[in-house]
Amino acid sequence: MSAPEPRVRLLTRPGCHLCDDARTVVEAVCAELGERYDEVSIDDDPELTRRYGEEIPVTFVDGRQHDYWRVDPVRLRRALGA
């Protein structure tokens, strides 16, 4: 039996200080709530770069765009049902 898909996805790019800040918040909230997240670099996908290049970091919860540029831990907890 495989693990369920992570509920949170974080789109980032190397060298992005806002991405570093977002990762810290996402890691903390997911650890607190027992949720998993994954991280995808938009630099690895031309379509993601075209679509989100000016908005990173971008967070998705359950496949829907949740935030961009900054991650508010209260909003993220609420979106995850906490």
TrEMBL record:
Domain of life where this protein originates: Bacteria
Pfam family, one: Glrx-like
Protein name: Glutaredoxin family protein
InterPro entries associated with the record: Glutaredoxin-like, Glutaredoxin-like_YDR286C, Thioredoxin-like_sf
